[in-house]
Amino acid sequence: AQKVTQAQTEISVVEKEDVTLDCVYETRDTTYYLFWYKQPPSGELVFLIRRNSFDEQNEISGRYSWNFQKSTSSFNFTITASQVVDSAVYFCALYFLQGAQKLVFGQGTRLTINP
Amino acid sequence: DAGVTQSPTHLIKTRGQQVTLRCSPKSGHDTVSWYQQALGQGPQFIFQYYEEEERQRGNFPDRFSGHQFPNYSSELNVNALLLGDSALYLCASSSAVGSYNEQFFGPGTRLTVL
């Protein structure tokens, strides 16, 4: 089975708090990519990060950081010192290189940052 | 460099009608994928077109069909609309060249079926 689970449906925090969005995936493939996308109210999916299955190094980009742990099949996303502009729906997705070259998305986490 | 464009932006139809959605891929891209995103859900893969043929298909009924033109643009057609077809339809384009085919998404077409 190929599946992405984002157990947190909605998260609400106060501005400047740190927040972590969880993502757990299932796949039997050994080669795959993991993604995070941001979807603001306008609807367009904004690419945030891509990580391949062979690269377990954590990554930091400004206030964003990602923790990829193959042993637990997780790819969590942390926003440090959150801002109101971070409010959006965030999707974790799995991409397969073999067979159907498609993205399998989680159900998304709606993040609300309150001033 | 224009990104992925979709038209129309919004559409309202009634049950039983047919609808056509359009997508123009990013310059240099030759592959188009369509996704359906129901309210409160993640996008679900409908199908993918490459070289004017349907290459892969998700778990969607035959009422959903598509087409790709020689200029790589694509159409998504939905026949006999149901209330449950109300969703945001996203188009993504990519290039078949290379081992990894990053998908760039358009802004979507929001379809409402009454």
How would you describe this protein?
- The complex is a heterodimer of chains A (115) and B (114).
- Chain A has 115 residues and is an all-beta fold.
- Chain A is built from no helices and 12 strands.
- Chain A has strands at residues 3-5, 10-14, 19-21, 24-26, 32-39, 46-52, 59-61, 64-69, 74-79, 88-96, 103-105, 109-114.
- Chain B is built from no helices and 11 strands.
- In chain B, strands 2, 4, 5, 6, 9, 10 and 11 form a 7-stranded mixed sheet that branches.
- The chains are: A mainly beta (115), B mainly beta (114).
- The interface between A and B is medium-sized, with 25 and 27 residues.
Mean pLDDT of chain A: 91
Task: Report the largest inter-chain contact.
Answer: A-B, 25 and 27 residues
How far is it from the N-terminal to the C-terminal residue of chain B, by CA?
Answer: 37 Å
Helix fraction of chain B by DSSP (H/I, runs of at least 4): under 10%
Overall radius of gyration of chain B: 13 Å
What is the H/E string of chain A?
A: EEEEEEEEEEEE
- Unreliably modeled segments of chain A: none
Tally of helical segments of chain B: 0
**H/E element order of chain B:** EEEEEEEEEEE
Sheet with the most strands, sense and barrel status of chain A: 6 strands, mixed
Poorly predicted runs of 5 or more residues of chain B? none
Tell the overall outline of chain B. globular
Summarize the structure.
The complex is a heterodimer of chains A (115) and B (114). With 115 residues, chain A is mainly β.
